[in-house]
Amino acid sequence: MEGTMGETSGSETISPKLQRVAELAKAMPHGTLTTLAHHMDLDLLLEAYRLTRKDGAVGVDGQTGREYAETLDENLRGLLERAKAGTYHAPPVRRVRIPKGTGAKTRPIGIPTFEDKVLQRAVAMLLGAVYEQEFRACSYGFRPRRSAHQALQVLWEAVMRGQGGWVLELDIEDFFGSLDHQRLRGIRRRRVRDGVVLRLIGKWLRAGVREAGTLTYPEAGTPQGGVISPLLANVYLHEALDEWFEDVVPRDCGARRPSCALRTMLSSSLLGRKTRGEWRRCCRSGWRDTGSRSIRRKPASSPFSSRDRPVAAWEHERAPSISWASRTTGATPGEGTRS
Predict the structure, then answer these.
(1) Whole-model pTM?
(2) Which of 223, 229, 58 is nearest to 128 (CA)?
């Protein structure tokens, strides 16, 4: 189907060059990396090309992967030169809409050109080697060798060890469309200040969206479907959600430090606590203010969503392989009655 999210950076391999970048980032956990672009060479672009789907939907220029491959060496050399010289022009993404769930809602998907996908993937590989050293263990969305199913499994095991509790599903509305560019830029610059890399990301954020013949330039968000978008979203949520929940919330709770679990799957998160009272203390701590309209304190009149129910009775409608009723039988996820 046109517009699927196959172009992501979650399954990439680590080359010796990227391994050196990862080792440098790990050795400088609080440092700022200023020279990354020299690691972006023809070999990296060739690997990025290899990992890019050749049969994916085409962008605004209509060029296919097969057509790009006809003069591959020339295309990649020209792409590398333009990227490093600052003359690369990020084309608008072509937006299509696909069904969302079983209702009438649709999900907007942005489709870059094939060449843009290759360059985005190369930069995502480079930045991924840096940020994978600091992402929290609770983060599972669009990361190498991690998946939403693993997140559910780990949360299930945590709940079983706690013998019950409360689980809240947090779905961040229009997450990709509401990312604040200025705040995202500030978060990135705390870790990476390479001019070439930052300039390219800025161009992608400002590239524009073409839909039904109309070209617009959104002031917020990153195209859902772009190769670089999941990584940028993870960088944003690492500070906005993961660090807040694991560092700030326990500190605010003081001596009443809650037994808790957070499993983030990009725009959706599952948060578990042992008692309802711990949820109230968590809500009083408040969502961290990062400029996203979706990551903030819920209204005091309704601190809990309608989906916040005792875990023994909770059915996760988007993960039918998980049966919370198995709690009483000692079964593992996937066994017992399916919801």
Answers:
(1) 0.75
(2) 229
